Amino acid sequence: MSRIAARFEYLRSQGRKALIPYVTAGDPEPANTVPLMHELVNAGADIVELGVPFSDPMADGPVIQQACERALKHHVSLRDVLGMVREFRRDNTTTPVVLMGYLNPVEIMGYETFAREAAEAGVDGLLTVDLPPEEGADLVQTLTTNGIDPIFLLAPTSHEGRIKAICAAASGFVYYVSLKGVTGAATLDVDAVAEKLALIRQHTDLPVGVGFGISDAPTAARVGRVADAVVVGSALVKLLAANTQDLPAGRAAAADLLGEMRQAMDAAPKA
Amino acid sequence: MSTVSKPQQTPDWSAFPDARGHFGPYGGQFVSETLMEPLEELREAYHRYLKDPEFLAELDRDLAQYVGRPSPLYLAERLTRELGGARIYLKREDLNHTGAHKVNNTIGQALLAKRMGKTRIIAETGAGQHGVATATVAARLGLECVVYMGADDIQRQSPNVYRMRLLGARVVPVSSGSRTLKDALNEAMRDWVTNVDNTFYIIGTVAGPHPYPAMVRDFQSVIGREARAQYLEETGELPDALVACVGGGSNAIGLFHPFLDDAGVAMYGAEAAGDGIDSGRHSAPLCAGKPGVLHGNRTYLMEDADGQITQTHSVSAGLDYPGVGPEHAWLKDAGRVQYVPITDEEALSAFHRLTRTEGIIPALETSHAIAQVIKLAPQLRSDGGIIVNLSGRGDKDINTVARMEGIEL
């Protein structure tokens, strides 16, 4: 069983929902990332989503765009990100790590090389936001062969036929983008999300995570009532951005917010 | 001697792209999930209206009465004499309403937007020509219009910025990344994914996710269809060569596509070599880049060893783009079109030369094509001919050219 599947199975047995923080690798500088990952795990992260910096993050709002720019000032490459995961794995062999980013860095590295080196580094999943399953057959196969879960997005605009096809290509979990927009956009509509999740669940037994627009503990708790996993990114990255001169303070602020979310989710009455 | 008949063994160029937008290994749909369904709606609508006589009649009427088509095919006699080779014909897209080829496409897409019930138009622009052409058709149809433009491009193309504002468009400066065309495209995509219900994104070039490369090509192919018929009528044969500048590549595809089956017609795409390919400061992905994925399609890109898109440079804002339309990538690999580098200096020199010999001020983008003609014409037989796409007029560039020569206007 993959680390991701094992984690969701454990959570289910506990009656809890997964909390998944996203941070951009190398933001604001490379040495910050591995300590931050550990602090997020200590604050209650079940899976860590690590952003691979890209020069043209088309699906991201200004907060994560700027995080990419800060990381790219240090020329953080996909290989550097794998190095960070490798370092994280020295002290943590159980928390799943999912890489999230855009296809081009993976394409340039080569699917085979990437999948082999990522698996060896301890990466558990890959989400390339600009790769729909229609274009992804080769990469999905290469990832799967190397024991890495291909994670796909579902959106408010995905009709039933697409939901079916995407769930068939995905493993680990599927990630429902809660609103039409970029990362870090306005708050989501939990009722509309719940309705769509019901439709998605007719087509898959995979856990369904929800992200985009979750910025505080009450929203995390409300989403946690209807989803299997809550993904939070821009709200954490904002705290890192506000503390680029004091890295430990930035990490602590992010961990504090995540801890509040954890508490609110665990305290929420079960659906 | 060129022949009109279709030769054996050529690929059936018209069969591309395939159903999912692939030109061989290039093209496709590399976008986030939210846009997949809207792209499918667009593809469906486009294919439906492409066969709708009423839509086509409205498009033809607008191209004739609003744009001013057909554009003339003009024999540049003095330039021909000076160069001492093939006759040089200019396809005068600079005479279109708004001063460039861009309007052929925005007219088509705006009619489509209207039929799809969209009330809001967005666009990206580099030199501002596509932005002006979009703002123009939006004004005419009474649609809200937002144009994204790199902050640096706003500086170097200020006349076009004012023109768009006069037309009622909101011009949004984009200060992320390299502050040029690619960043404007990123921002337009972000707008589209957020406002996809009421918004139609008019992409200005033959790039982006399927169906844009094919759709923009089809709207621009009026250039090549007219030029082919005009040349045949005047000379009774086909030209020896076609020349056009290539940034994203819409004016080039527009001219080339109707001639692809004419095996005797050579084709040259002039890419912006900036300070020279060896300097690294250029915008020539076909001459010096490698394949990758950006802005919804797989194509040749300017990128580093890590897959990050690199800074581009060209004196011409409209060519200052790290990618290129996927059909060009495929035509390059197939060897059907030759893509050649033209430096800023060569383009500037061609700008002055055409202005002085023919009384036509070309856009700096177009000047790259003229520079290639200056190299090519003397090598060809004197009873042959070259058609060059005079894709835009240069009024918008006079500030840039003056500044480079130390003149304050």
The shape of chain B, in one word, is globular
Number of strands of chain A: 9
Helix content of chain B: 40-55%
Described by strand count, sense and barrel closure, the largest sheet of chain A is: 9 strands, parallel
CATH architecture of chain A: Alpha-Beta Barrel
Low-confidence parts of chain B lasting 5 or more residues at pLDDT below 50?
1-8
Tell me the total number of β-strands of chain B: 14
Order of helices and strands of chain B: EEHHEHEHEHEHHEHEHHEHEHEEHEHHEH
Q: Tell me the major beta sheet of chain B.
A: 6 strands, mixed
CATH level-3 fold name of chain A: TIM Barrel
Averaged pLDDT of chain A, please? Answer: 95
User: How would you classify the helix and strand content of chain B by structural class?
Assistant: alpha/beta
Number of domains of chain A: 1
Helix count of chain A equals 12
Say what oligomer this is.
heterodimer
Summarize the structure in words.
The complex is a heterodimer of chains A (271) and B (409). Chain A is of the alpha/beta class. Chain A has 12 helices and 9 strands. Chain A has a single domain (3-267), classed as TIM Barrel, CATH 3.20.20. Chain A is 50% helix and 14% strand. In chain A, helix 8 links the parallel strand 6 and strand 7. Chain A is globular and about 45 Å long. By secondary structure, chain B is of the alpha/beta class. Helix content of chain B is 42%, strand content 18%. Chain B has 16 helices and 14 strands. Chain B has helices at 33-49, 53-67, 77-83, 102-115, 129-141, 151-156, 158-166, 181-194, 212-220, 222-235, 250-256, 285-288, 326-334, 344-358, 364-376, 398-404, and strands at residues 22-23, 26-30, 73-75, 87-92, 120-125, 144-150, 170-174, 199-201, 241-246, 266-274, 290-294, 296-301, 338-343, 385-390. Chain B starts with 21 loop residues before the first strand and ends in a 5-residue tail after the last helix. The chains are: A alpha/beta (271), B alpha/beta (409). At the A-B interface, helix 3, helix 5 and strand 6 of A face strand 2, helix 1, helix 8 and strand 11 of B.
